[in-house]
């Protein structure tokens, strides 16, 4: 049965997913000008991949429909690096070009705002669930 | 934790009829109340564990902790409601004219 408290679990998964997204945005912002990585070459912009997962896959139809979100993967988005002519840079190639990651800080800021708002929305779901449970308990008074 | 609250609901609905019959054998109300207390205690312990993790820096699961605390709070209030109902039932029996 779709428990009122199962909603907590779904909302909590949303909160956890947004927290991880915040983490990748922080990483992308911090490494906007990073030219060296362990794998070689400039930093690659990371994107979290979200996946819906039923909280009760063997339950009734309505229960299977209720899905939590999980982060299944962190992928680099595959944008080619931006080449900037700067022969004095230690990481410049033979032609004097430096490869920087193609990260637009403005775009990351917009992602940051949507992440914050989505987190907020999920906390509202938690609060609404809590309020409904409290209302249910008031019946017996 | 979630099962615990369901358990509390079960006690509330099953207690008045079944336990009243068992009252002569003793332990009717006490047994019903004890299972509710155990369920609430489990959710309190889970919330406590998470809170300790955050306080000691072992975990950064802030929202998980807050949600566990909320669940424990709801379970405790649910137990309080069940207790009120049990006491009410007991008093009804106690005040019964014989």
Q: If you had to describe this structure to a student in words, what would you say it looks like?
A:
The complex is a heterodimer of chains A (141) and B (98). By secondary structure, chain A is of the alpha+beta class. In chain A, 45% of the residues lie in helices and 19% in strands. Chain A has helices at residues 6-30, 61-65, 105-138; strands spanning 46-54, 67-76, 82-85, 97-100. The longest helix of chain A is centred in the last third of the chain and has 34 residues, at 105-138. Chain A is elongated, with a radius of gyration of 22 Å. Chain A starts with 5 loop residues before the first helix and ends with a helix. Chain B is elongated and about 60 Å long. By secondary structure, chain B is mainly α. Chain B is 84% helix and 0% strand. Chain B has helices spanning 2-22, 28-55, 62-94. The longest helix of chain B has 33 residues, at 62-94. In chain B, α1 runs antiparallel to α2.
Report mean pLDDT of chain A, rounded to a whole number: 90
Termini gap of chain A:
25 Å
Strand sequence of the main sheet of chain A, in spatial order?
1-2
Number of helices of chain A: 3
Helix amount of chain A, in percent?
Answer: 40-55%
- How many DSSP-defined strands of chain A? 4
**N to C succession of SSEs of chain B:** HHH
**Poorly predicted parts of chain A:** none
Order of helices and strands of chain A: HEHEEEH
- Low-confidence segments of chain B, given as residue ranges, are 1-25
Biggest β-sheet strands, sense, barrel of chain A? 2 strands, antiparallel
Broad structural category of chain B: mainly alpha
Return Rg of chain B in Å: 17 Å
Structural class of chain A: alpha+beta
What's the Cα radius of gyration of chain A? 22 Å
Instruction: Write down the oligomeric state.
Output: heterodimer
User: Ends of chain B: how far apart?
Assistant: 43 Å
The total count of strands of chain B amounts to: 0
Global geometry of chain B: elongated
Beta-strand content estimate of chain B: under 5%
Tally the helices of chain B: what do you get?
A: 3
């Amino acid at each position: 049965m779709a428990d009122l408290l199962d909603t907590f679990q779904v909302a909590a998964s949303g909160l956890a997913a947004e927290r991880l997204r915040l983490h990748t945005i922080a990483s992308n912002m911090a490494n906007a000008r990073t030219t060296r990585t362990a794998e070689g070459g400039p930093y690659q912009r990371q994107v979290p991949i979200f996946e819906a997962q039923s909280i009760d896959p063997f339950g009734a139809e309505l229960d299977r429909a209720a899905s939590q979100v999980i982060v299944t993967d962190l992928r680099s988005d595959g944008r080619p690096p931006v080449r900037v002519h700067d022969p004095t840079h230690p990481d410049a190639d033979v032609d004097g070009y430096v490869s920087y990651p193609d990260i637009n800080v403005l775009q990351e800021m917009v992602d940051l705002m949507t992440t914050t708002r989505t987190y907020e929305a999920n906390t509202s779901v938690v609060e609404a669930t809590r309020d409904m449970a409290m209302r249910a308990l008031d019946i017996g008074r | 934790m979630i099962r615990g609250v369901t358990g509390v609901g079960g006690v509330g609905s099953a207690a008045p009829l079944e336990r009243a019959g068992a009252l002569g054998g003793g332990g009717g109300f006490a047994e019903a109340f004890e299972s509710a207390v155990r369920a609430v205690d489990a959710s309190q312990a889970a919330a406590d564990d998470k809170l300790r993790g955050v306080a000691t820096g072992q975990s950064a699961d802030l929202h998980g902790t807050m949600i566990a605390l909320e669940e424990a709070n709801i379970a405790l209030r649910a137990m309080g409601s069940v207790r009120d109902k049990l006491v009410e039932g007991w008093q009804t029996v106690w005040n019964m004219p014989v």
